[in-house]
Every structure is written in C-alpha cells, then in structure tokens.
Amino acid sequence: QNARLGYVPTEDHPVGQASRHFAKLVEEKTGGRIKIETFGNGVLGSEPDMQASVQAGFIDIMVGPTPNLVGVVPEFMIYDLPFFYKDFAAVDAVMDGEVGERLFSLLKEKTGIVGLAWWDNGFRHMTNAVRPVKTVEDMAGLNIRVIPNPLFIATWTALGTNPTPLPWPELYAALENRAVDGQETPYALIYTARFYEVQKHLVKTGHVYTPFVLLASQKWFGSLSEEDKELVLEAANESAAFQREISRKSAEDLEQELIAKGFEITEPTPEALAAMRERVAPVVKEYSEKIGVDVVEQAEAAMAAIAAQ
Amino acid sequence: MPVPLQWLFKAFDVLVVIFMALMSLLVFANVVLRYGFSSGIAFSVEVSRLFFIWVIFLGSAVALAKGVHLSVDTLVSRLPRKARFACFLVAYGLMLWCCWLLAVGSWSLTLIEWGNRAALSGLPVGLNYAAALVAAITMAVCLLVGLWQALRGSLPATWSSTEAAEPPLTVIPVAPSEKMQ
Amino acid sequence: MSGVVFLGSLLGAIGIGIPISFALMLSAVALMILLGNLDAQILAQRLVNGADSYPLMAIPFFLIAGELMNAGGLSRRIVNVALALVGHLRGGLGYVVIGTGLLMASLSGSAIADTATLAVMLVPLMRDAGYNMDRATGLMASTGIIAPVIPPSVGFIILGVTANISIIGLFLAGIVPGLLMGVSLIFAWWFVSRKETAAVRPKLPRRDLPKAILTAGWALLLPVIILVGLRFGVVTPTEAGVVAAAYALFVGLVVYRELTPKLLYEALLAAGRMTAVIMLLVAASMVTGFMMTIASLPAQLVALLSPFIDTPTLLMAMIVLAIFIIGMVLDFAPSITILVPILIPLVNAAGIDPVYFGVIFIMTAAVGMITPPVGTVLNTVCGISGTTMDSALKGVWPFLLAEMILIVLLVIFPQLVTVPAAWLH
Ligand code: NA
Ligand code: NA
C-alpha cells in the first residue's frame, strides 16, 4: 500500500506542486521502496479532520497551515503575531532555527505527529471593496472578515476595524453582498478564491505570516527503517527549498495577475507600517505572554542574528 | 418501551425543540445584526453548530427507538419467519457493535477535546463529541430492549412483515372545509 | 477486493434490514478492517465532523419553514387560489394539484412534507367529486417529487455539500427543470383525464379571486424573497433558510393568526426529527466517503469507466439509468449520499458541468420516490388516500413516464438546463 498525502488547496497551488515533488523525491531516494500518493482539493477532509487522521494513522502525511495546531500546541501562535516578521529572511530564520525545532518537538510530544518541513504560505494582505488603504486611519470602521481566532480578532480591533469571524465557505458570498467589506489572506488564496471579482483594493500589509507544515503520522514514520527515515527527512528538506521558491515566485507573479484582474494595489510607507505596528503592540505583548516569553525572545534573537549578517 | 426510556425520549424531544429554536434564533439574530447594524454575535456560528449537532444525535436516538430511520424491508419481508428472526439477530448484533465503536470513539474524543476550547465561545470542543456519546449509549440501550422484546416474541416492524404504524415525519395540516372558500 | 468488501457489506447490511445510516457506518468499518486499522476514534470523529457544517444548517431551517407554512395555514390558502383559478375546468382538480404542488415546491424543501400536505388537502375534494382515486394518488405523488427540484431543496443542499458544488448555482438551475416537470404532468394529466367523468366544479364568482390571491399572496412572497436574496447575493443559502423560517413564523403568527404554541412546538419537533434522520445519513456517508477514498475506490471506478469518459452524453445516460435502478430500492437522501461521492470523480473527469449533473441527479433520484418497490412518496399518499400500493402503481405510471421522458430529453439536450441556468445566474 502506498503512503497517502493529503492537502486542501488545489492541485496547481504551490502546495500541490510541492507535494508531488516531495513524493517524487522520496521515491527516487529510496529506490522505489516508498511510494506516496497525493490527494488534493480536501478529498481526505478538512485540515483539522486530516490532523486527527494523521494522529490515528489513517493518513500518513499531510500539509496544513499552523493555526490549526494552536489548539494542541499554543506556541504555534508565534506565527499569528501581527507585524512580527519583517521579510522572508526573518521568517526563514525562525522556521529553520531553534524555534522551528522546538515547535516540532512539542508537537511530537503532545500528539505523536512528526513535523517534516516548513513550507511557505506567504504573508497575509488585506483587501477591501470600499477605499484604497495606505495608513491605519484608512482602515477605520471597515468590516473585515477574520478567521475565527481570538488573536486575529484582537489584532483587527486594535487596527480600528470591525473584525467579523466567518467560516471560509461563507466568505465569498459575504464579500459579494457586502456583508463584510474586506478580508485578509495570502496572494495565492486571494487569487484562487477569485476575490478580484468582488474586491477592488489590496493593501500590502503583510501583517501575518502563517506557514504550511508538512506532517507525518507516527504510525507510518515510525515503521520506516532508520535509513529510510533519514532519506524522507532529506527529501522533506529539499521539498521545503523547492516549495518556498515556487510559492514566493508565484506570489510575485500573482501580484501582476491580480492587478490585471482589476485590483488596485497600494503599499504602505515604512512610517505607516510603524503606526500599525504601534497600534497592535499591546496585542503582541498580551499574546507573547500566552505563547511564552522565552519562545518569543528566541524568535526575536534569531531574526536579529540574520539581520546583523 | 419501558417507562423510564419513554420519559428519557420525551426529554430528548423537548431538548430537540429547544435547540432547534435557539439555533434558528442565533443565526437569525446574526443576520439581522449584520445587515441592520453591521455588527454580529461572534460566537453565533460556533454555538448554533453545537446545537445542530445535538439536534442530530438526540433526534437520531429517538428516531431509532421509534423505528423511523430509513431502512429497506423488501428482502426481509419475503423471508420465512425463522430466516427473518436470524436477520434480525444479525442486524441488531451489528448495530450494537457499531454503537459500541461509536461510544468508545466519542468517549475518547470527548476527553481529548474537553480541554480544547472553541475559539470564540470558549466552550469545550469535546461537547460536540459528547452528543455522539450520549446517542451511542441511548441507541445501544434501545437495541438491547429491542432484543429482549424480540426474545419474548415481538419483533420490530422491519422484521415482523407488518406495516410500520409510524405516521409520516411532518405536521399534517387541517384539511380545508368547503365553506372556508 | 476493496470494492467487493465495500459493496458486499453495504448491500448486505441494508438487505437484512439495518437502517441505511448504520449500514453506511458498517461498510466504512468493514473497509477499516480490510486495511488493518479499525479505529473507533476516526469513526466518531468523521461522523461528528461530517454533521458539523454551516452550509448543511440550511436543511433544518428550510424544514422548519416548510413545517411552519403547513401548520400556519399557508398551504390551505394556496389550494384556494388554485381552486379559484382552474377548479372549474374538466379534470380541474388535477390542475389544482399540479399548480398547488408547484407553488408549495417553491416554499418547502422536502418531498414527503409537500406530498403529505397535498394529499391531506386534495384527497377529500377529489374523492367527493368522483375522480379515479388511483390516478389522483399517482398524480399527487408525482407532483410532490417536484419539491426537491425547485428551490429551496434539501436534496440540492446535501448534493452541493458532498460534491462541493455551489448550492446557489444548483438552486437557480433547478427552477426551469422543476417547472418543466410541472408542464410534463399537465400534458400527462390532460391526456389521461380527457374522458374524466368526475363532477366539474362551479366557477367561483369573479370577485372571490382577488381576495383568495391576496391572502395567499403572503405565501407567494416567500419564494420571491428567497430567490431574489440568493440571486443577488444578499443572503447565503443558510441565511436564506433562517429568513424563510422567520418569515413563515411571522405570517402564521401575525398575519393568519393560526399558529398556536402547540403547533409551533409540533412543527419544530417534526423538523428536528427530519433533520436528525437526514443528517445522520449525511454524516454516516461522510465516514464512508472518507474510507472509500482511503481505499482508492473512486479512482478504480474512474479507471474502469474511462472508455465512456469521452462521450459525456452516454455517460450521463448511464448515470441516469444507474440512479433510476438504485432509486427503485433506495430512498432519496441515501441515493445522494451513497452515489454522489462515487460519481463526482467520473463527472469531473468527463468534463460534465457539475451543476447540470446535480440537477439531473436530483430529478432522477426524486423519481425514485414514486417507483416500486420502495417509493416513500407514493406510500405517503397511499396512507392518506387509503389506496393500496398496487393500485396506486396503476395510476402513477403515465406521470412517471412523462417525467422520465423529460429527463431523457434533458440528457440529450443539456442546453435545456444550462442555458436558463446561465441566464438566471
Ligand atoms: Na422546493
Ligand atoms: Na423507488
């Protein structure tokens, strides 16, 4: 029986491409001993459902974003902190450094799930149908859909908007009929969900970076020989480099594509971003304590080290 | 059906009605608030879905007791009495086993997810699985009662080749009288 | 091998009389055992989370709306309008059945509830007028099954969620085929009632008509609210459901003043019971669907039927035939929850418009409710009209034939569905 890998995005999404690439790498490296079959479009279930199935050993490998792991390992909220990461280099320093390792070992400890690699999901940006946004003042009073998560609600309240938690399947209709004015997701989702049909303005807030993680079940991973474990981890590492590159490249291309589809894109000045960061500072402080100040400091140190280079 | 079980199902019926009403109220209030006042009840979706799950599982338990879950008796009704009885025993045995699996699974999920709080309402996520646990236990009790009654000679409608006496699942309106036109 | 285990356990369990929702769970358990990983926790988790869906909450809301309509006296007023309009024609009560049925189909999502109401309202009138009751029973049953094709529709909601197809798209695409079902029945009824000897009702005084329309107008406003709301994106299907329920409550309580607390309780309880029965099936089929995918069954079926994937019309014809045959013994909701997860990979592979597939699927599965041996809707009318199933079958076949001819036409000319759907969307 082949190993099964599940993910929710479409097959042509960077996650889909990288999943197939990972499967190919594993098969090549192990000389065909391990074959992986990939299932996209959520046919194996929603991300929380898959997580439980990975834990139980029905699904061998899955890809999902980090917010779903917060319930079992609150430290994963480090990726939901607003205006915490300056750029991709800062994010990579945290994911590939001690913090990333620590989060995976906490996950293993609490659930048995094996973290294989950190993949890219892009920075989240805000879109709306009302007006161009350049400063935090421009955000005032907009109804923004957020994922049902207290940290996101606190962030968007601090920014002066009315955050409305809505389930993802309801979002498009809510944007279309203006039940909400805007939303905040990465480029890839904005594009694949066709938000350009119902939204006009995109502001490059890049306020949050939520990575994807490649996870394996203990049942499957534990059954491999030591040699194969090494080879799978090696393939996972190479897949991360591949996935981050195509994902970030495609985000760049998507920006042009979104403009072509009618989005007006604005970029806040460093001063405007600083003003936003200042607004959410109390939220960051409050949630840093919930995450654990040591983890946050560890992340900050990793980012400082990379910035110093 | 023994009297205590009848009371239990009466209570389930009342709960189903209350949950149906509350879940409608929550979603309706949210719609009105959103369109009328651009605000909303943050926990509305979470809590109404919890009520929905409880309606499904409590209602399913009552439906099993009353024999209204959809089933097919085309084959069974053509069999001789002894074969029908055998089918009944196998069917009830398998259903009991299914309830057992469901009870074990939902019990451990209730425990695991009890500490996991829903993001907006703060309610334990384990409450979702508790609904399945309650249903699995009550359904198992119903099945055991059914087995006991069958051993004393009265088989449920599907296996006794009699028409089910249960009326359709709908409110039957008053027929119009000619003079009302 | 996994296919044999799956089908064997599912059909075996259904065959010995196990309720279909349990049979679905048991077939998933059988696949788990085959894969050497029987896990009670996954069974419970997939079952509960299969039910935990915001879009599916539209089902209880539309069911509440339908029950409140009935209990609040709306359906009776609709009958009165139809009587005033066509009651005096030859075979006029037959047209009253079709007209009332079409209107009620646009108010409620459940065929059983609609048919029961039709029968309670019109069986006494048709019997007193001396109509052939076998034929009348057949007509009411074949009219009742229009309910799931014209929005709102529980069937479309389940299909949309299981196959990941836009529910609004399905709703809008169902309107014209649903009306065509009504037209096909009008032809069939006209044909069989040419020599009807039943008493022709006196024509009502002209001045009564506006009054009848005005009081029933409150009912006629509801489909308009639902459709306009959905079409222009003012509400999502779930919200449309709850708005419909609130509207029905308002009309029953404030306008007609017929809704008592006791009736309200009964309506909520009936809707709750129906919700439970339907949703346990849906949830159980989510477990089955998951295990089928894990066992690679859909992929095997696509590979098996790949020769037909190049000719979508032939594939659709085969699908219709399969639904028709399975619809003989399976009820409406189970045919959706069992067949759709199997068929949707095929439909996608063949490039068939999923909304078109959904409409044809629901029409054919609805016809299954009036085919022998298991025809729940026909059975419901028989219970109320006191006809036996055997004589009802003699009365139903002209209408059944008319509806099947319509489906065949829609398979040959998909434009009949897709063009109006594109225009309405
Ligand atoms: Na309908
Ligand atoms: Na049938």
Automatic annotation (TrEMBL), chain B:
Enumerate the spans annotated as Tripartite ATP-independent periplasmic transporters DctQ component domain: 23-152
Which keywords, in A-to-Z order, does the entry hold?
A: Cell inner membrane, Cell membrane, Membrane, Transmembrane, Transmembrane helix, Transport
Q: Where in the cell is it found?
A: Cell inner membrane
Transmembrane domains' residue ranges? 12-35, 47-65, 85-109, 129-151
**A family per Pfam:** DctQ
Membrane topology term reads: Multi-pass membrane protein
Q: Which family does it belong to?
A: Belongs to the TRAP transporter small permease family.
What's the subunit arrangement here?
The complex comprises the extracytoplasmic solute receptor protein and the two transmembrane proteins.
Q: Which PANTHER family match?
A: 2,3-DIKETO-L-GULONATE TRAP TRANSPORTER SMALL PERMEASE PROTEIN YIAM
Q: What does this protein do?
A: Part of the tripartite ATP-independent periplasmic (TRAP) transport system.
Q: What is this protein called?
A: TRAP transporter small permease protein
From TrEMBL, chain C:
Q: Where in the cell is it found?
A: Cell inner membrane
Residues annotated as transmembrane: 7-34, 54-71, 78-98, 104-126, 138-161, 167-192, 213-234, 240-256, 268-294, 314-343, 355-375, 395-424
Which keywords fit this entry according to its UniProt record? Answer: Cell inner membrane, Cell membrane, Membrane, Transmembrane, Transmembrane helix, Transport
Q: Which residues form the TRAP C4-dicarboxylate transport system permease DctM subunit domain?
A: 8-416
Q: What is its main location?
A: membrane
Instruction: State whether keyword Acyltransferase applies.
Output: no
Q: How does it sit in the membrane?
A: Multi-pass membrane protein
User: What Pfam families does the record point to?
Assistant: DctM
Q: What does this protein do?
A: Part of the tripartite ATP-independent periplasmic (TRAP) transport system.
NCBIfam families from the xrefs? dctM
Record's subunit section: The complex comprises the extracytoplasmic solute receptor protein and the two transmembrane proteins.
Which family is it part of? Belongs to the TRAP transporter large permease family.
Q: What is the name listed in the Swiss-Prot or TrEMBL entry for this protein?
A: TRAP transporter large permease protein
Q: Which organism is it from?
A: Neorhizobium turbinariae
Q: What is the lineage of its organism?
A: Bacteria, Pseudomonadati, Pseudomonadota, Alphaproteobacteria, Hyphomicrobiales
